[in-house]
User: What shape does this take?
Amino acid sequence: AQSVTQPDIHITVSEGASLELRCNYSYGATPYLFWYVQSPGQGLQLLLKYFSGDTLVQGIKGFEAEFKRSQSSFNLRKPSVHWSDAAEYFCAVGALNSGYSTLTFGKGTMLLVSP
Amino acid sequence: DTGVSQDPRHKITKRGQNVTFRCDPISEHNRLYWYRQTLGQGPEFLTYFQNEAQLEKSRLLSDRFSAERPKGSFSTLEIQRTEQGDSAMYLCASSLEWDVEQYFGPGTRLTVT
Assistant: This one.
């Protein structure tokens, strides 16, 4: 069974500073990896995804993530954080099991942006 | 079609009452998923439909929970005899067949008092 670890529960970043959110996964085969963002009281919005190919993937809102197989990691980055980026971020690993897809989520990292 | 929709967005109920939530997936998606998200946690899988068939249920889905997708379009999730521990955000997602990517709705926030 797959699992996802997001080691940071909260992160505070100054507006304009760079951001890196950590994600480690456990899965026996090549994983499908996702980052979602959730604003308070809202559903999940997909930021970016990795299925195969180039290990550096670009997403919406200026986010990018790098897949590192050797480290079982898929860290999310942004060069300059805006106040509107304050939200909760979830890393997820997807798998095709028995013909249907499953998504396993980490517990999330809450991003706080200070002025 | 603009995405997955869920109704209601918020529900407050008293312990012991029954509640029902509705999810309308993206129209061409034949797969539909329900998740539960409690405070401080990521979403956890509850159940999955392909068309009208419920093909997988998590152990989190107790006997008080029932889900249907009668015509392979919208789905309902009913919780009978609600308990305070049922308070959570209930998320619905849909996908195309053989597609790992799931598209999420805005969720229904349930509060059991």
Summary: Chain A touches chain B at residues 4, 32, 34, 36, 41-46, 49, 51, 90, 92, 94-96, 99-108 (CB under 8 Å). The mean pLDDT of chain A is 91.
